[in-house]
Amino acid sequence: MHAATAPGPKPYDVTAPLALRWRSSGTAKVVAACFPHPDGLLYLDLFWHRQTPAQAAHLLRGELTGEGPWRIGDCVISVLGCHNTDPDLADDFARWREYLESDAAAAEYPPPGQIRDIARLLGASV
User: Fold this and answer.
1) How far is residue 78's CA from residue 28's CA, in Å, rounded to a whole number?
2) 101 is a domain residue
3) DSSP 3-state of 12
4) Which residue of 34, 61, 85, 103 has the fewest CB atoms within a 10 Å radius of its CB?
5) CA 125 to CA 116: how far, in whole Å?
6) Is residue 74 within 8 Å of 61, Cβ to Cβ?
7) Does some domain include residue 104?
8) What is the phi-psi region of residue 47: left when phi exceeds 0, alpha when psi lies from -120 to 50, beta otherwise?
9) Whole-angstrom Cα distance, residue 119 to residue 126?
10) How many domains does the chain have?
11) Residues β-bridged to residue 43
C-alpha cells in the first residue's frame, strides 16, 4: 500500500513571483497577487492599487490543474523565470519589487490583510 501524497502547492500559496501566459495568444504578464475564487482564480495586475478593480482585477474562469506550472482555461501559470528566460517579464517584476521597497509603497500600498479583504470583496475565497 502506498501512502497518499498531499497535493502540491497552488499558485496562491507560492511566494515567488508568478507569470501568466495565454496559450492561444502568447500574451504574458507578471501578477502582483492571486487568490482562489469559486469560479477559478482571481489575480491582480502589478500596480493594481493605482487603478480601478475593473481595470486591474481579473478572473480566470475554470478548474485550476497541475502542481506548477498550473493551468486554468487558456492560461498557464508558472513561477517567473530569470532574465535569461523571460527578460521582459523579469524587468516588469524588477520595477514592481523596486516599487514595493520604496517609500512610496510604504505610504500607499495596502498591507496583506487589507489586500485579502479587497480580494474577498471581489469574490475571492479568502
Assistant:
1) 11
2) yes
3) helix
4) 103
5) 9
6) no
7) yes
8) left
9) 7
10) 1
11) 34, 58
